[in-house]
Amino acid sequence: MAMSEHGFVVIGAQSVFFSITNLKTLVEVERGAYPVSIGEDIFATHEIQPGTVDQLVVALQTIDQLMTDYGVKSYDIIGTHSFFEAKNSQFVRDQLFSRTGRPVATLTLSQESYYRTQAVLGKFPHFDQITQKGTVLIDISSGSVELTAFANGEFGFSRNLSLGPLRVFEVMGDLQRTVPNPTEVMRDYIDSRLADFMRLLPKNQHYPHMILMGSALSVFNTLIPSGEEMVETDHEGFRLIYQEVVQASDQYLSDHFDLTPTQTAQVLPTVLLVYRLLKTLNAERVWISNLKLLDGIELSAAGEAGSQAAAIDPTREILISAQNLADRYQVDPKHRDSTVNFALQLFDRLKKLHGLGKRERLLLQIAATVNDVGSYVDTHKHYEHSEYIINSSELMGLTMPEQRMVAAIARYHSSDTPQTDLSDLHELNSTRRLIIAKLSALLRVADSLDASRQQKIQKIRVSIQPTRVLLTATATDDVELERWTLQTKGEFFAIVFGLPIELKGKTRL
After folding, report:
1. CB atoms closer than 10 angstroms to residue 422
2. Residues 38 and 84: beta-carbon distance below 8 Å
3. Domain 125-290 belongs to what architecture?
4. 8 A C-beta contact, residue 442 and residue 350
5. CATH number of 5-108+296-304
6. Closest CA to 363 of 432, 420, 450, 293
7. Are strands 457-464 and 285-289 parallel, antiparallel or unpaired?
8. How many angstroms separate the CA atoms of 85 and 65, rounded?
9. Residue pLDDT, tens place only, 449-491
């Protein structure tokens, strides 16, 4: 088997999915799934039971043998957020490692959202055409619902809600035995949770299209029979499904549609959730897709490997997510863009000093975009507010340590300086602390170059000299404020890189 083949394994709420994919061509050599319902354990007892752990071990061992048969020596095992919601997830993770020799990596909710978005961008038929009109991508897993908005062919924003059908069934389970109309109460419960997402939607944007995907949609395999990879229906077609499900008993659903007890429990919450979204958004067309998180992970890995088959920009949605956060907290767009521009120029022209790579450049760009969000709360010590806002937000595509790093860089872009030994960042390892220090030093300089908030400096030339780093600015006005600000903020640059940084300006009339 060629080295371009790579294995992927995802532990979801209902199954363990796997694939072997040629990263150069994005052709799947093998794909499958083993039904292991950790979701039922988690939502019933909040823990993964020993018997379920045994099933996971068997599934992983079987997949490992398959990987060996295909000659795949290295592959990734990823646990979704459903797996890590279990109170004993870390113990189970350790048990799986002890019994299979394979570690289970974690994903944040924002990473999962990123991979699902990559899946539809790269694999959904006519996606560009469909999203010219407002479109909401809805990924329904057992425990949560990810809602991602698109308009004019562009990603808008994403929001995760704890509205998965198994979770709703758990919360609402007692109602079916205690109230005369549990469906109406469940509808009100779902509507109350959707209110936050609806509040964030642009006021004048219509969303006539919906794309449904996710593990919980397996119930539609029988509700909407099709041998195709994608099913299309409309508002009226889904209304008929909704009426049939709402009026049916569990026994009828189980017998008529050949559903397991677990699927039967999820039918009403799933159909009700989708129908309420249809009504709320006034959507006209619905596409049901079998694309999964696994597809996005494959695409992302192919892109990182330089595959021409993965013809999507892997950072586009990440940067849009950061811009959306900045817009939400009313960051001055002109100063933001100026700071981003200078930060990236400094990064590119000072590579000999910092020695960092593409991912670190992206983190700097994100930090430069969102570093002033704290001013929305209070301009006094706004950098402290920026840190906790960033840590509490969903920045698509970042790992948890990366998001913590961006928050720390934003905090230290101002006058607040990390301790020289970076001991105040004890929760991050030494490598990440050093990256934070380097990127914070660069961001401080970039921010100083627009200290007046008037975008006086049009361009800069960067020169690394034996005793200093010299910035030569071409400006439309006097830059004394920028020079003075840099003298203060540049002290940390000198500590980190061992060279002072100075600004020389020339005014262009």
Report:
1. 17
2. no
3. 2-Layer Sandwich (3.30)
4. yes
5. 3.30.420.40
6. 432
7. unpaired
8. 28
9. 998 888 999 889 999 999 999 999 888 888 889 999 898 888 8
